[in-house]
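Chapter review: from sequence to fold.
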Amino acid sequence: MEITKDLLGPLIRRWGCISRRVLIATVVFCATGCVSPWGDGIVVRDAWIRELPPSAESTAAYMVIENRSLQARRLTRVTCDIAGRVEFHESLLEREVMSMRWVEAISVPAEQRVTLNPGGLHLMFIDLIRLPRAGEQLELQLHLDSGETVETVAVVRSDAAVGSSTPSLRAYHGIGGDFVLDDQHGDPFQLTRQRSDATLLFFGYTFCPDVCPVTLSKISVVRHELGLSSDRLATVFITVDPERDSPQVLREYLAVFDSTAIGLSGSSDSIDRVVEMYGGEYELGSDGSGGYAVSHSTTTYLLDEDQVVRYLFRYDESPAAMAEVIQSLLEEQRDGIPAPPDTSMFVYGIDNPCTCGDCDSHDLVLDHPLWSRLVSANPRSTGNGEMPQLAFPFGLESGR
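The token string follows.
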């Protein structure tokens, strides 16, 4: 950088004793080391888009948006040639129920970063012009309130979530039970006729942007880690959106993750009964675009060879933690070890003295939001050591 005498003269006359050499060094340092109010602007890293089944009508994208300037920025619009429009959504997980809300813009504070990831803020691609292909790199244009446009490339892939768990394999006789629904081939499916050493069962819907794809991805990883075929570990996906999730849609959707997975649907009433049996929840809501999203519980139920619930996986369980629990169950069944008694409030009634001799396990029961939700819905037992099956706020709008 060249500093002229015209620039240095007034400064030297003002501070007199400052040498030209020191002043030049100071000017050069400020020019190269200080952060401008506009700095390097917005930088986008690790952008990716979820792989989709053929029947999909929307997908989600995730990334890290870093603001390297001293000015806060707002992401107000995103464009991409595969979608008619891109909206900002946020998934909210509360008491094991995932809901989704529309967001007007994404704020990125000065000198900070915002992470868009499954289960949180994300970009929702709606009115797809075509389906993204696995491995494809898609160009995105991020438009800011400052008038700037940042271009980035997002890779199409699938993912799995992380978490942790500690096995506790007692039999939960207070939830679950047999049912009959229709599978993705249009055939009747009865749970107790399912022949497998273990079953992973959960509720969801194929238009789900986060929870369901992540859960199915994790189950695929678990099956691979354990080297289990479908006759040893079955996957049962029960839709809570039967209006959109036809047998064909279920079939195409599940094939992306696991061709052996069982997708179930039925009438609104029959699905409601199953959701109630398993202490689940779901509720229809607007997605901000004239359609509707479904808030639903995220618990994955581990069933043993007799289709008894033995473990409740949270949404944030890692594949490794899930594999550990499933392996423990398979080993117990192989060795003929009976399930520990159910010490939950469903057997003993929370206002009755406990006679199980292992009161610490009550804490394990109440640790899961599903149980605390049941207690808050009906805090008193029948007084005879048993609790009635409880009803929960869920269901489709009337007339569906």
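Two observations follow directly from the output. Residues 1-39, 160-166, 343-369, 371-400 have pLDDT under 50 and may be disordered. The first helix runs from residue 5 to 15.
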